[in-house]
Amino acid sequence: MLATVIPVCLALLGLAFLLTVLRLLYGPSLPDRIVALDTLNINAIALIVVFGIWVDSDEVFEAALLIAVMGFVGTVALTKYLQRGDIIELR
């Protein structure tokens, strides 16, 4: 049963990934594009985790954790830049 569920999950996650890329490219505003970028990060993590389950590899989960942390930091930095025009406060 897992042999049929995992390819279906990979296909659906791939479709979600492509639709999110379209939202990122054609988003009407900058906040919509930032949300699409964050969603793209979540979709990439989900794809990596499902692929790791499929190939039965532990190293893939570590890569997914690193991508999650970097995506969070990137989203916070972009949001802070959008709100204030500066990422790092000197004061």
Structure description:
The chain is 85% helix and 0% strand. It is mostly helical and 91 residues long. The chain has one domain (2-84): Helix Hairpins, CATH 1.10.287. The longest helix has 26 residues, at 30-55. The termini are far apart.
Defining key terms:
about 85% helix; mainly alpha; about 90 residues; flat; 3 helices; Helix Hairpins
**Fraction in helix:** over 70%
Our measurement of the CA-to-CA distance between the termini, rounded to an integer number of angstroms, reads 57 Å
Total separate domains: 1
Q: Show unreliable segments.
A: none
Write a brief structural summary.
The protein is mainly α and 91 residues long.
Give the SSE layout.
Blueprint: H1 2-26, H2 30-55, H3 59-84
Helix pairs in contact: 1-2, 2-3
